[in-house]
Write a structure and sequence with these properties.
By secondary structure, the protein is of the alpha/beta class. It has two domains: 30-349, Alkaline Phosphatase, subunit A (3-Layer(aba) Sandwich); 350-451, 2-Layer Sandwich (Arylsulfatase, C-terminal domain), CATH 3.30.1120. The protein has 14 helices and 15 strands. The chain has helices at residues 3-22, 55-62, 77-86, 90-93, 109-115, 131-134, 154-167, 190-195, 227-249, 284-287, 312-320, 335-341, 415-429, 443-451, and strands at residues 30-36, 65-71, 100-101, 119-123, 142-144, 173-179, 257-262, 288-289, 291-294, 301-308, 349-354, 372-377, 381-386, 393-398, 437-438. The strands form three sheets. Strands 1, 2, 4, 5, 6, 7, 8, 9 and 10 form a nine-stranded mixed beta sheet that branches. The chain has a four-stranded antiparallel beta sheet with strand order 11-12-13-14, covered by helices on one side. Strands 3-15 form a two-stranded antiparallel sheet. Helix 6 (131-134) links the parallel strand 4 and strand 5.
Length: 456
């Protein structure tokens, strides 16, 4: 073979090698979606928290996309997960509260993947996601919601999820795992309770939701405890979730799977008049949530854009190589396209919460509990509208100067931007909701819901 022929072959080999290297990776074979109920972003070490509450999640995030400003569309479990599975805002999908079933209209992520031939399995740990109360079982071949009374501990749920994962290996798999251990009452195991125990107790908690009163690890049921003791127990409970995540990921081939870890909402700890609770406020600690996306070929990136849980579904389908059916018209956006290709996405986030007057007794608000609190977080300003019994209340915050939302701006501040946020928020709130079916709980179910803080 002549020198020219050898050089030609070498050139072809190099070109083929470059083409192979530049070819996009194959879509992930599997999808794992983990929901860490009641976990606020700023209590995770991946988000800068000083305590090692979630080292396995932090390890995953180092090779993934970590979204620093991700927002839940509701501070309650049911509507937040309905948004996650439909790619629609609560006023659009109609499941606007816990115990309100998802109407028949919206198509869910599980339905799309099951139609595409995937094995679909969900394993949930908390009462609001039971099929009878949420109708979120649509599209799942297996929807395991057999709870121990009001909830199921993480080890039991994870064990069942892993058994299904192994049995479904021949097919493409979508696993949804919902872990509930960080939801009050905080009851970490003795080992982690000792690990996260502080030397100080903090101020005695004067007002505490009844469902937060627990025998373990605080001893007598009615004994008053310090704020730091509750924070310690909350952090230890998050660590329990992280251990379940580590157990799960040990059996997932991350070279072939997309993994999404997020929370449905956060938790108010010591910041507010009404402490150690969620669902009735729209402050940052309750609606800013972790969101980590890992997938083959995606790489590592920290994303500062404002994003929402409504974006998860329209992000996953293209990533998985699954066509979006015509009937599915998500309101969210493909975050890979937004970040990599500069696709448009609004620079704000919508959230809602239950209107419960006792949560705002320090402000003297008298709220109409038949309507929802609505909030819009912009790039700097945030508007919260509370539905009043006679007139609505508004609070405007400058998050650049007051990240803790302690000092509402005076009336008339930032008039142009405040008016713009109000117009956008009104459009969200005015969206005609689909007719929804409220699940009427039995006396036993009502008692369980009340014990978890879902009924007053």
């Amino acid at each position: 073979m002549g020198r020219r022929a050898v050089l030609h072959l070498l050139f072809l080999a190099a070109a083929l090698s470059n083409a192979t290297a530049c070819a996009p990776p194959a879509p992930p074979r599997d999808l794992v979606l983990v929901s860490l109920d009641t976990v606020r972003a700023d209590h995770l070490d991946a988000y800068g928290y000083a305590r090692p509450t979630a080292p396995r999640l932090a390890e995953l995030a180092r090779g993934a996309w970590l979204f620093r400003n991700a927002y839940a569309q509701d501070a309650n479990t049911g509507p937040s997960h309905a948004t996650l599975f439909t790619g629609l805002y609560p006023p659009q999908h109609g499941a606007v509260d816990n115990n309100v079933r998802l109407p028949a209209g919206p198509t869910t992520l599980a339905e799309v993947l099951r139609t595409d031939g995937w094995a679909t399995g969900a394993f949930v740990s908390g009462w609001p996601l039971r099929a009878m109360a949420s109708a979120l079982d649509r599209g799942f071949e297996v929807y395991d919601d057999e709870l121990d009374d009001k909830r199921r501990r993480g080890p039991q749920t994870t064990e069942r999820a892993l058994a299904w994962w192994r049995a479904s290996a021949p097919r493409r798999r979508f696993l949804f795992l919902h872990l509930y251990d960080a939801h009050g009452p905080y009851e970490p195991g003795a080992r982690l309770a000792r690990q996260f125990k502080s030397e100080r107790r903090g101020p005695i908690v004067e007002r505490l939701p009844s469902y937060q009163r627990t025998r373990y690890p605080f001893g007598k049921r009615r004994e008053r405890r310090g704020e730091q003791e509750y924070v310690d127990a909350y952090d230890a409970s998050i660590r329990e979730l992280d251990e379940r995540l580590a157990e799960l990921l040990a059996e997932v081939d991350l070279r072939r799977a997309a993994v999404v870890v997020l929370a449905d909402h956060g938790e108010s700890l010591t910041e507010r008049f009404w402490k150690f609770d969620h669902g009735g406020q729209a402050f940052e600690e309750e609606i800013r949530v972790p969101l980590v996306l890992a997938a083959p070929g995606l790489g590592a990136r920290i994303v500062d854009d404002i994003v929402e849980l409504v974006d998860v579904l329209p992000t996953l389908l293209p990533l998985l190589g699954v066509p979006t059916p015509p009937a599915l018209q998500p309101a969210g956006h493909d975050l890979v396209a937004v970040v990599r290709r500069g696709a448009a996405r609004p620079r704000h986030a919508f959230s809602s919460a239950r209107a419960l007057s006792p949560r705002h007794a320090d402000r003297g608000y008298r709220l109409d509990r038949e309507r929802r609190i609505h909030a819009l977080r912009g790039e700097r300003l945030k508007l919260i509208v509370y539905p009043g019994a006679s007139e609505d209340y508004q609070e405007l915050y400058d998050l650049a100067e007051d990240a803790g939302e302690r000092r509402p701006l005076p009336a008339g501040a930032h008039p142009a931007e405040a008016a713009r946020l109000a117009r956008i928020l009104q459009r969200y709130a005015a969206t005609p909701a689909l007719p929804a079916e409220r699940h009427e709980p039995s006396a036993e179910d009502a008692a369980n819901l009340r014990a978890l803080g879902y009924l007053d």
